[in-house]
Amino acid sequence: MQYRQLGSSDLKVSEIALGTWLTFGVGIEREKAVASLDAAFDLGINFIDTANVYGTGAAESLLGAALKDRPRGSYILGTKVFFPMEGGEYGLSKEQIEKQLDASLKRLNTDYVDLYQCHRYDKNTPLEETMAALTAAVKSGKVRYIGFSEWSPQHIQDALDLAGVEKFISSQPQYSLLWRRPEGKVIPLCAANGISQVVWSPLAQGVLSGKYLPGQAPPADSRAAHETMGERINHWTRPEVIEAVHRMQPLAEEAGVSMAQFALAWVLREPNVAAAIVGVSRPEQLAANAAASGLSIDPALFEKAEAIASEIPPE
Fold first, then answer.
1. Where in the sequence is the domain holding 76, given as residue range(s)?
2. Fewer CB under 10 Å: which end of the chain, C or N?
3. Per-position b or e across 242-264, b if 16+ CB within 10 A of its CB
4. How many domains does the chain divide into?
């Protein structure tokens, strides 16, 4: 496993991070989740990503129980705040940040999180209030560093322009061979300001693994076939997307890697990406994904894959 600096912080995170969206506490059995977490540590993965809203606290609670016997300094833990929790409360107000942070810490069974992220931008709360609350959280010792997910370039710049507040070190955008929107403005802006990308859905919810075949039903054990985990995958399982990924498969074979490893290596080719978050339903998937760290692949093969992706018609 290779490691990269997370923005301007002193954190070094594994290039492959373990995600818990739709899986921990919700989509997979507890035993498989714990086994996947154990496998992550065995593989050198030190970065775990979660959020208060994942399973409405269930993912954090599972992690809190599973991590309690591990030295706190042996892993980097990130969680998030914004989306509705108990009673429909949501947002990035001072009140919500303080309340939800304490609740996350209690579920996670820890005194602090390494990375506390704004899960989205809150247009109903003044940015100054949000940043002041996050700064206070850092000063209190409950949070080491702060980040955001899916903020617009303007919102990022607005935060950078505020004086006397804690600075963001990470951005968590969707980014993959099939979704390159951050390359336009977000990545250049972040790279110029000490902010790294921690990428979610680098495999387009598993579609870039190549497991889905043109004209065939999804495998029974796949996310697309799962009652709960498959609810948001329809955008990527369109026939034209599946066909495009199928056309990329020979490129991965030429590189001597799996399609998933090829797609993860493509994401990691970007210097501003610190880590690619992968979600798994069983430990063996994680081992295969972790092998993408440190791969050296001919850029010409990536260019061919990009050309195939560019031909996919918009939805």
1. 3-206+266-296
2. C
3. bebbbbbeebbeebebbbbbbbb
4. 1
What gap in Å lies between CA 1 and CA 46, rounded to an integer?
10
Residue with tokens 């496993």: 1
Q: Strands 12-14 and 3-5: what pairing?
A: antiparallel
Any residues with CB less than 8 A from the CB of 44 and at least 6 apart, and which? Answer: 1, 14, 290
Number of helices (H), then strands (E), belonging to the chain: the values are 10, 10
Name every residue whose Cβ is closer than 8 Å to that of residue 67 and which is 6 or more positions away in sequence: 37, 75, 77, 108, 109, 110
3 state DSSP class of 276: strand
Judge whether 311 lies within some domain.
no
pLDDT, tens only, 235-252: 788 999 999 999 999 999
- Residue 307 in any domain: the answer is no
What is the share, in percent, of the chain residues with pLDDT greater than 70? 94
- Is 303 contained in some domain? no
- pLDDT value at residue 225: 44
Give pTM, 2 decimals: 0.92
| CATH code (residue 49) | 3.20.20.100
Catalytically active residues, by annotation: 54
Which residue type occupies 75? Y
